[in-house]
Design brief:
The chain has five helices and five strands. With 185 residues, it is α+β, with helices and mostly antiparallel strands. A hairpin with a 5-residue loop joins strand 4 and strand 5.
Length: 185
């Protein structure tokens, strides 16, 4: 694959514990239409997601979002993804610790990514009208590790989702592998 700048665990440890990026505030409040789209797409027939009367019959104030839907509310959209890819191709590094970490791994040849696992703990149900905010931290960086995909670093992001009053909704651990692809045999 060619020569790459070396990166060491000690250097990457400086990122651990840092706020990965500024809080992400949802572009839109939780809506019944998006909940219905999600439930229909996944074939989830739980009535508390789509039927206000059924949700109220369970003691809820109205329909709720499926818990696993939490990350959809704060997604930046495809326009932002294209912007990040353009900046990356131009060698521009944004001033957030997460962007700087990813650029450092890119420079060292760890340019590919795969999500490895996610765990979530649910603290409150998310109802229509909730404005979700996510706070990200870089919780750990482990490596280099040899994997079937190639040598890489496991990066774990801690995510704390809160409502508009800063009440906790979900905490999440999201781990990805940033790896240097193996040379084709």
């Amino acid at each position: 694959m060619g020569d790459h700048v070396r990166v060491g665990a000690g250097e990457l440890d400086a990122y651990v514990g840092q706020q990965a990026e500024p809080p992400r505030v949802a572009r839109y409040a939780v809506s019944a239409a998006m909940i219905r789209n999600w439930a229909e797409a996944l074939g989830d027939t739980n009535a508390v997601y789509v039927d206000d009367s059924a949700a109220r019959a369970t003691g809820r104030p109205g329909i709720i979002a499926p818990p696993a839907m939490i990350s959809t509310w704060i997604m930046a959209g495809y326009r932002r993804w294209r912007e990040v890819q353009r900046l990356r191709a131009e060698g521009v590094v944004e001033s957030t610790p997460y962007s700087q970490l990813m650029a450092r791994l890119d420079e060292a040849g760890y340019t590919s990514v795969v999500a490895t696992d996610v765990s979530q703990e649910y603290h409150a149900e998310v109802g229509v009208g909730t404005l979700v905010t996510a706070h990200y931290t870089i919780d750990s960086i482990v490596g280099p590790k040899t994997t079937a995909l190639g040598e890489g670093w496991f990066v774990t992001l801690g995510k704390r989702y809160v409502d508009h009053d800063d009440h906790p909704l979900v905490t999440e651990q999201f781990r990805m592998l940033r790896f240097r692809p193996k040379d084709p045999a």
